[in-house]
Amino acid sequence: MTIYRADTLFDGNQVLGPGAVRVENDRIVEVFSGPAVAQVRADVDFGSAILAPGFVDIHSHGGGGEAFTNGVAAARTVIATHLYEGTTSIMASLVTDTLDHLESQIRELTPLYDAGEILGVHLEGPWMAEEYKGAHDPQLLRDPALDEVQRLCQAGPVKMVTLAIERRGGLEAVRWLVSQGIIAAPGHMNADYDVMKAALASGAQNVTHLFNAMRPIHHRQPGPIVAALETPGLPVELIADGVHSHAATVQFVFAAKGRDTVLVTDAMAAAGAPDGDYLLGPLEVEVRDAVARLKSNGSIAGSTLTMSRAVRFATYTAGVDIWLALHAATARPAAVLGRTDIGIVAPGAYADLVVESSSLQVQQVFRRGQQVR
């Protein structure tokens, strides 16, 4: 048993002020706040630091020079890279590829899910709009035929699927995914406002990186973005790096969606690694000044973000409230997955903790009760 104390305890949803956490094995068993903190004899006191839940990233492709598409050893490099920066729970996102390759990748990642090392698999492709494909191979894009969607989702722990809902079979796929407890996430789409509203009525539960790779807002054709922003309770992903979204856009989304904003990294292999040449699925990418772009046409090809950087950008560059930004990196993404054992500091939750300075620099990281940084 170990008791950790800090002058500021953030539990994923609110600031508790000075607080302490009692950890036994891999779980939090007690949380102290208010007058009770003065009676606690802490084993470790972090002083003026912020003690918060570990970050939860539901959309990440790679890091540390590796990608989730490259097998178990590579996936563990990705996990370790982001863990060092405070992400204690991560989803393995896969990019557009052939169905055979995607099925193989899902099966390779399954042992990591079974071991609790990843949150599951997110399929970002191949069911995308050609007009908004982003950094995906246009020759491999296809309609979301239900038998193909079922084939991949039944190959392993697929927890979320990004798809262009306007493509033939899109709404049918949404309904089937929802019936299986899999998150249907509209994205990389050319859907209009009405189709987006139909997808939401069919149970779509998340929006993949809002603004990026989707039909933009027009005053006579509001499109999917307005539909997402006006829907209460609908979480929207946001890549807060100043490349995918301007700081003013980041501030606007937080103002519009508040506690339904979900920070994601959409990181590729160069996150936590130097500039250079990389692959994103089968496509060649060059990273210069920490910005990833396809060699073929210059399209943005994922980010080089870590979640700690995303939180700092949202807070210090975009002017978002610090606690709202931290909520968007912890409790809210966990809630997208229906998880109540991660992203929060509460009895029964995993002892996934991040110690940060007042300027949100990660100082120490604990996962499942073990210090990893």
UniProtKB/TrEMBL annotation:
Biological-process GO terms, alphabetical: N-acetylglucosamine catabolic process
Active-site residues annotated for this sequence: D266
EC number: 3.5.1.25
A single MF term (Gene Ontology): N-acetylglucosamine-6-phosphate deacetylase activity
CC cofactor note: Binds 1 divalent metal cation per subunit.
Binding locations of Zn(2+): E124, H188, H209
Pfam families according to UniProt: Amidohydro_1
Annotated positions binding substrate: A135, N212, A213, R220, H244, I300, A301, G302
UniProt keyword Metal-binding present: yes
Domain Amidohydrolase-related, chain residue ranges per copy: 50-372
InterPro entries in the record: Amidohydro-rel, GlcNAc_6-P_deAcase, Metal-dep_hydrolase_composite, Metal_Hydrolase
Keyword line: Carbohydrate metabolism, Hydrolase, Metal-binding
Named cofactor requirement(s): a divalent metal cation
Enzyme class: hydrolase
Family label: Belongs to the metallo-dependent hydrolases superfamily. NagA family.
Protein name: N-acetylglucosamine-6-phosphate deacetylase
Species name: Mobiluncus curtisii (strain ATCC 43063 / DSM 2711 / V125) (Falcivibrio vaginalis)
